[in-house]
Amino acid sequence: MRLSVIIFYLFIPAAASAQVIVRGSAVQPAAAIEAAAPQAVAPDSAQWQTAYLNMNSGYDDFCPAVFNRGLLFVSNRGRTRVAQYRDSKDQSPFFTIYYVYDVAMLKGTPDPQWKTAAPVQPKAIPASSNDTRKVAATKPAAPLPENVVILKGDQHISLFNQQVNGRFNDGPVSFNQRQDTMYITRNGRSGNKKSPDRLQIHTFIYRYGDWLPAGIFPFNSNEYSTGHPAVHPNGHLLYFVSDRPGGVGGTDIYYTQKIDSGWSEPQNAGQVVNTPGNEMFPYFAPDGTLYFSSDGRGGEGGLDLFFVQLSGNTPTGEARNLGAPVNSPQDDFGIWLNADGRSGYFSSNRYGTDDVFEMKRK
Description:
- The strands form six sheets. The chain has a five-stranded antiparallel sheet with strand order 7-3-24-23-22, with no helix packed on it. Strands 13, 14, 15, 16 and 17 form a five-stranded antiparallel sheet that branches. It has a four-stranded antiparallel sheet with strand order 4-5-6-8.
- It is built from one helix and 24 strands.
- The chain has one domain: Neuraminidase.
- It has one helix at residues 153-156; strands spanning 19-20, 28-29, 48-53, 61-67, 70-75, 96-100, 108-109, 157-159, 170-175, 181-187, 199-207, 210-216, 226-231, 237-242, 252-259, 262-263, 267-268, 279-284, 290-294, 304-311, 314-321, 332-337, 343-348, 355-361.
- Pfam families: PD40.
């Protein structure tokens, strides 16, 4: 994904050699970072089943979130048949938020089958929206599985909301428990053609039957990116991702508390979560467990999904790897769980582009 419009927005400069930013030093190859200690894997990781969903498009689709009876997700599929908004720098499509009206229409396929060999081997995977490689110039949609009946966008999938979706990159989002307040990652506009447009967090509230702008996060900056918001179920704690100065690695997870005047000064979530690598896509399950993705902790490969408990506002104990089959040798991120903790959705580029998968306990 690209950094100026970053998709995804990884906050990380693109490089063919998979470079990452180490705070306070020159950019170094990922292999130069000291190998992370082996991470604990959840003992019941093999009890998960995963399935490829029929709402995927062959473009990048990721970061699912259930809203009312439907499912939101971020995608760079064409917004309309007539207008295709694209980044002027490389002509790649912008990301925006789409909505499947009813989750009952979602069907999972455990073993998708392509005409060509699948899954795609790591070296053959094209640049995606959530890794360290740059999104390639305009590319056609990837082939879809032969044995999956894909939902038709005109009938079942649409843009989420005209007020929320702008002309540039939008998403991912996080809702409060009542789902009447939305925090969303968007491209800020620096106004300087020579400097990148940093990611920012914006707030919308649901009033009078529509989503209305309710201000921007006070700690946004034109000097660094701030995004991937995650609201705790209590509504008073916000986790997010930033490459601001002073972090542990390339991108770190931070938190802030709601106070009378707005939000408190952000604090680094600490080394229970953050590493010299990149941590991003935080998410709070209904029970308050923090999930996030990291490429600095070892595991299956690429970005892996981890979870950890909180003590007060901060992570405590040991971050645990979800293990296979949720994690794969590729990038796995953007999780969302139902209230029972036994089912949900996540994103992965294990088949070459970012796709949304279903996950269930056996």
